Amino acid sequence: MTRIDKKFAQLKAESKKAFVSYIMAGDPNLELSYKLMERLPTSGVDIIELGLPFTDPMADGSTIQLAGQRALKGGMTLQKTLDMAKKFRLVDDVTPIVLMGYYNPIYSYGVENFLQNAKKCGIDGLIVVDLPPEEDEELCIPAQAAGINFIRLATPTTDDRRLPRVLQNTSGFVYYVSITGITGAASAKANNVGPEVARIKSKTDLPVVVGFGIKTPENSHEIASIADGAVVGSAIVEKFADGASVDEICEFVESLASGAHAA
After folding, report:
1. Deepest in the core among 112, 129, 166, 234, taking most CB within 10 A?
2. Please, are residues 54 and 68 in contact by the beta-carbon 8 Å criterion?
3. Residue 137 bears catalytic tag
4. CA 45 to CA 210: how far, in whole Å?
5. Out of 27, 49, 238, 254, which one is annotated catalytic?
6. Is 163 helix (H, G, I), strand (E, B) or coil?
7. 3-state secondary structure of 183
């Protein structure tokens, strides 16, 4: 049982929904991104999605793209991202960390070496946007053999023929992308998301968490009320871009988390 599995079991026992926050490793610099990461759990975050900066993030809108560019310009690498997780584990051995990004940096690093080091550094799950189920032998199956959850994305275009393939080797939770398009492009609407979450839950016992387009505490509450949790990314990342302090961002995160937990 991974930290992700334990966290969802705990939340279910407490009749609570999960709040998941995304931050970009190394944005606006390594020191501040780590400082924020360390404070996320006390701000109400149940699971941390740690973004791996990449030069060609196809699923990300401008907010996440610019965050990745700032991180790369500051010298952020996959190894430094793993080191960031390792440092976090010295002060928090409970909060799950999901590494979210693209396959190219992992492939360049070496899959076997990456999985060994990711596990040692305390990574609990992977979301690799550009690896479809047809490529499960590349990373998904080896990751699960190493004790790391492989979390798959389902989207509004994942029809009933495609869904079983998407769910086949998924573990930890299913991440439902609430909108068709890139991150930060639109707002999630419960009346659109609700039927899709119900459809996915009818095919799996895994928790279903909804992300993309969640920007406010009200949004977070609304979406968490029809799913097992809500993910907020761009709205948090944008705060650093606007010059907000770590304290100010944590205050915003706390309001988002409160919205989800009250669902």
Report:
1. 234
2. yes
3. no
4. 15
5. 49
6. helix
7. coil
Report the relative pairing of strands 97-101 and 229-232 from DSSP bridges.
unpaired
User: Which spans in the chain are helix H?
Assistant: 3-13, 30-39, 62-73, 78-89, 103-109, 111-120, 140-145, 163-167, 190-201, 217-224, 234-241, 246-261
3-class secondary structure, 97: strand
pTM of the model: 0.95
Q: Which of 60, 196, 222, 238 is catalytic?
A: 60
Alpha-carbon distance values, 118 to 13, 75, 113, 176 (Å): 29, 19, 8, 24
Closest CA to 220 of 252, 182, 244, 247: 252
SS3 assignment, position 187: coil
Per-residue pLDDT of the chain (263 residues; tens, 9 = 90+): 899 999 999 999 999 999 999 999 999 999 999 999 999 999 999 999 999 999 888 778 889 999 999 999 999 999 999 999 999 999 999 999 999 999 999 999 999 999 999 999 999 999 999 999 999 999 999 999 999 999 999 999 999 999 999 999 999 999 999 875 444 444 555 677 989 999 999 999 999 999 988 999 999 999 999 999 999 999 999 999 999 999 999 999 999 999 999 99
Using only the alpha carbons of the chain, give its radius of gyration. Answer: 17
Place of tokens 């915003």: 252
Q: Where are the chain's structural domains?
A: 3-261
Identify whether 27 is a catalytic site residue: no
